[in-house]
Amino acid sequence: MPANELHTLYKVAISDTIDLGVIEVEVLLMSIDWFRDLVICISGLMATVVLVFIAVLLYSLYRRTRSILDSIKATTATVQGISSYVGNEVAKPLIQVVALVQGIRQGIDTINKFFKK
Predict the structure, then answer these.
(1) Residues 70, 78: contact at Cβ < 8 Å?
(2) How many Å apart are CA 102 and CA 111, to the nearest integer?
(3) 93 domain residue, yes or no
C-alpha cells in the first residue's frame, strides 16, 4: 500500500488491530475532524441541558414571585378598604365636629368683639 494511500486511510476513522500475544487489542484511529465534531456535539448537548435548567429555575422563580405579588395585591386591597372605612366613618364625623367647634368659637369671638367696644 503506498504511503499517501495509508495517510488518507488514517484521516478517516479506521480500525487497526495490534496483536499482543494472547490478547488482541483493537485501536480506533480518528482524525482531528472527528474530535472537532465530537466536541461540537457535546457542547451543544451541554448548552441544551443548561438552557433547560435555567428555564426551570426561571419558571420556579416566576411562580414564587407571582404568589408573593398576589399576596401583596390582596394586602393592598385590604389596606385600601380600611383607609376608606376610616375616612368615611371616623374622619368625616371628626371633621364635622371640629368645624362645628371652630364655628362656635368664631361666633363667641365675634360676640366678644361687640361687647368690648
Answers:
(1) no
(2) 14
(3) yes
More confident residue, 23 or 107: 107
What is the chain's percent helix, strand, coil content, to nearest 5? 80, 10, 10
Residue 39 CB: number of other CB atoms within 10 A? Answer: 10
Range of the domain at 98: 8-108
Q: What is the model's pLDDT at position 34?
A: 85
pTM: 0.42
| 3-state secondary structure (DSSP) of residue 16 | strand
H/E element holding 13? none
Type of residue found at 8:
T
pLDDT tens by residue, 93-113 = 888 888 899 999 998 988 888
Exposure string for 71-103, b = 16+ CB within 10 A, e = fewer: eeeeeeeeeeeeeeeeeeeeeeeeeeeeeeeee
| Each residue's pLDDT tens digit, 65-81 | 998 899 999 999 999 99
In the block, residue with C-alpha cell 503506498: 2
In a domain? residue 67: yes
